TrEMBL record:
GO cellular component: Golgi cisterna membrane; Golgi membrane
Catalytic reaction(s) noted: UDP-alpha-D-glucuronate + H(+) = UDP-alpha-D-xylose + CO2
Single GO MF descriptor: NAD+ binding
Pathways per UniProt: Nucleotide-sugar biosynthesis; UDP-alpha-D-xylose biosynthesis; UDP-alpha-D-xylose from UDP-alpha-D-glucuronate: step 1/1
PANTHER family membership: UDP-GLUCURONIC ACID DECARBOXYLASE 1 (PTHR43078:SF6), UDP-GLUCURONIC ACID DECARBOXYLASE-RELATED (PTHR43078)
UDP-glucuronate decarboxylase N-terminal domain boundaries: 5-83
Protein name: UDP-glucuronic acid decarboxylase 1
Known cofactor(s): NAD(+)
Gene: UXS1
Length: 289
């Protein structure tokens, strides 16, 4: 009897324990499910938020990228690359004027002098020369391009003048013979005046046409030529002859001293008569015109 009562008591206690344990297990299970649910909803929220942010970032990127592209293009156009230029000390660096510097010979001379490290000013009326011949220097601190006709006086400070401004091929110089004459006479006088005023050396680009229809081949520097003053090419031939005469007159009066550069490196004119204080004068007769 006692045993049975004891067994009933134990089983009743066990049942209660079991219920308690089951209750605890249920609570634990519910808690863990709840925890997972909270975690999941947090993660879900985060991923939704991240997704949203990503979408916004992508949208911003889509708008900004073309703008960035435009900025890159602008930067490229501002930071133009120039051909390599030597560094020259202030003492060695010359301020050089090239008239007709946008033409064939002038633009190559511009390249050479720029790359040697000098300061170059190109003056041209673009009659036959083109801006594109020197455009690769535009904006360089050592370079300046002036649209100017040498028939008008020019007031700038320079150390050397290469006077090349003149139409050079028959159709061009015969197109307006009076203008060709003015360019080679008044233009040359203006450049000689400038050279005299600022104490600059001057080189005149002449032409083998100063020999006219020569009777001697090849022509030496001593040959005076065979020119028809009223022939169809006279405006150029005689214009350049007068230009040479004017340069020689300036040199003879010791305003300018010959030459700092001449045909094949030879002196075109004797220099004995000039004092050493005088500045330079040069003549270049091209033989290919
Ligand atoms: O009135 C004028 C005429 C012409 N010019 C310029 O002078 C330059 C002449 O160059 P071109 O390319 O026509 O000819 P080239 O370079 O071959 O001539 C070169 O060699 C021959 C010489 O007689 C020229 O004086 C010299 O410039 C051009 O840039 C032209 O626009 C002027 O600046 N003013």
């Amino acid at each position: 009897m006692v045993n049975k009562a004891l067994q009933r008591l134990v089983s009743a206690v066990n049942r209660r324990r079991m219920k308690l344990l089951l209750g605890i297990a249920l609570i634990a299970y519910v808690a863990s499910v709840w925890g997972n649910f909270v975690n999941m909803s947090f993660l879900l929220n985060r991923s939704i938020q991240e997704n949203g942010e990503l979408k916004i970032e992508r949208k911003i990127e889509e708008i900004v990228e073309p703008l960035r592209e435009k900025i890159r293009d602008l930067e490229k156009s501002f930071t133009q690359k120039y051909p390599p230029v030597k560094f020259l000390s202030e003492k060695d660096r010359k301020r050089i004027l090239i008239t007709g510097g946008a033409g064939f010979v002038g633009s190559h001379l511009t390249d050479k002098l720029m790359m040697d490290g000098h300061e170059v000013t190109v003056v041209d009326n673009f009659f036959t020369g083109r801006k594109r011949n020197v455009e690769h220097w535009i904006g360089h601190e050592n370079f300046e391009l002036i649209n100017h006709d040498v028939v008008e006086p020019l007031y700038i400070e320079v150390d050397q003048i290469y006077h090349l401004a003149s139409p050079a091929s028959p159709p061009n110089y015969m197109y307006n013979p009076i203008k060709t004459l003015k360019t080679n006479t008044i233009g040359t006088l203006n450049m000689l005046g400038l050279a005299k005023r600022v104490g600059a050396r001057l080189l005149l680009a002449s032409t083998s046409e100063v020999y006219g229809d020569p009777e001697v081949h090849p022509q030496s520097e001593g040959y005076w030529g065979h020119v028809n003053p009223i022939g169809p090419r006279a405006c150029y031939d005689e214009g350049k002859r007068v230009a040479e005469t004017m340069c020689y007159a300036y040199m003879k009066q010791c305003v300018l001293l010959p030459p700092f550069s001449a045909v094949a490196g030879q002196e075109a004119w004797p220099s004995e008569r000039c004092s050493s204080e005088c500045k330079g004068m040069g003549l270049l007769r091209s033989t290919v015109m």
